[in-house]
Amino acid sequence: MNLAAAAADRDAADPLSGFRSRFSIPDPDLVYLDGNSLGPLPRRTRTAIAETVDREWAGGLVRSWDRWLDLGTRAGAALAPLIGARPDEVALCDQTSVNLYKLAEAAIGAEPSRPDIVTDADNFPSDRYILHEVARRRGGRLRDVPADPTVTDIADALDQHVGLVSLSLVNYRSGALADLRGITALAHQAGARVLWDLSHAAGIVPVDLADADLAVGCTYKYLNGGPGSPAFLYVRRDLQGTLTQPIAGWWSHDDMFAFEAGYRPAPDIRRFLTGTAPIVSMIGAAEGIALCADAGIDAIRAKSRTMTSWFIELANQRLAALGFEMVTPTDDDRRGGHVALRHDAAWPIVQALRDRNVIVDFRHPGIVRYGFSPLYNRYRDVAAAIERTADVVASGRHEAYPDAPAAVT
């Protein structure tokens, strides 16, 4: 098969091909497959941040807070359609870990007789640390189910002591996509609430939170918000006035500029805010969200499925004989936006690929992650990743690189 010709045909027919020009890609030949860790800079973001700094901050000074004050809820409303929520159910604020803590504590605090939390053994470590502490401080425990759990796995872990199920919709390591609807319905039948982490799903997978309780996620991956851009949280409308979050900051007060001595929480999504919003970073997040919304989540998902499916097909043909093992589900409906391959020399391979202008990343134990973002990745990137990976390993070039992972992988 002539991969270059096949890729060219696919790129020529790609309805999203024009979006690549809306990003600052430093090298036209760069194969950047790490947008599942940090998305590149949208061109409009540079302009929007400059306008905020030069005109609103430098020129407007404190008067610009009239425009900035509700930026988190406005950006949340723009994000809402991408994650299947209503506009008044989402807000940008804080970081994912802080938001996870706030919502987990609120959920468990509402049902003190059910202090146990269910999660999976391969959930993102930061999530597990927080969930463990929330359960422990309430006198409960964290219950593990197998990685990439099925509805049956969750059912086996539920009883009258479980108040919360918290999972990642897309597994950060394997790329497996969980059954949001089935797991949520099952937990509700057992009297538990569900808190979803959408960090590896938002902006790449259509999400339907209509029946979900709570969710969090970051904006610097597929939403291209920039390094350290603020996270988001979702609270279903009917729960907003009943749950109590643990960090009662002035931005969650019903009248923040009343400066009352006592705390009076807002009745809506503002109830889950905390402190002063990081305005410059939030501008970047808002621009990234707008870009994804312009493309449309259905079009993004359609291209994501075809890109990852083609990569899996080629990997099975060309990389399996070189010691690579497929980790990601091959069923399109059970896969997020990245593909994970296991190899005994994963970290040296990642380093060798980076020196060949293919940016991928490494995760323990021995996993190479190839993240495909439909807004700027091309099918020629799929072909190049396969060919250069095969060449690096078949030639033994990776053997010249150290085995010990660096601080950032």
List keywords for this structure.
15 strands, 7-stranded mixed β-sheet, single chain, 409 residues, 37% helix, alpha/beta
Please provide a brief summary of the model.
The protein is an alpha/beta fold.
Structure, explained:
- The protein is α/β, with parallel strands linked by helices and about 400 residues long.
- It is about 35% helix and about 15% strand.
- It contains twelve helices and 15 strands.
- The strands form four sheets. A seven-stranded mixed sheet has the order 4-10-9-8-7-5-6, sandwiched between helices. A four-stranded antiparallel sheet has the order 11-12-15-14. A two-stranded antiparallel sheet has the order 1-3.
- The longest helix is centred in the C-terminal third of the chain and has 22 residues, at about 295-320.
- The two termini are about 35 Å apart.
- The model has no long low-confidence stretch (mean pLDDT about 95).
Largest sheet: 7 strands, mixed
Q: How far apart are the termini? A: 33 Å
- Secondary structure tally: strands: 15
Which structural class do you get from the secondary structure elements? alpha/beta
Q: In percent, how much strand structure appears in the residues?
A: 5-15%
Q: Kindly state the mean pLDDT as a whole number?
A: 97
How much helicity do the residues have? 25-40%
Taken in chain order, the helices and strands follow as HEEEHHHEHEHEHEHEEEHHEEHEEEH
Gross morphology: globular
Low-confidence stretches: none
Query: In DSSP terms, counting alpha (H) and pi (I) runs of 4 or more, how many helices?
Result: 12
Radius of gyration: 22 Å
Side by side, the strands of the main sheet go 4-10-9-8-7-5-6
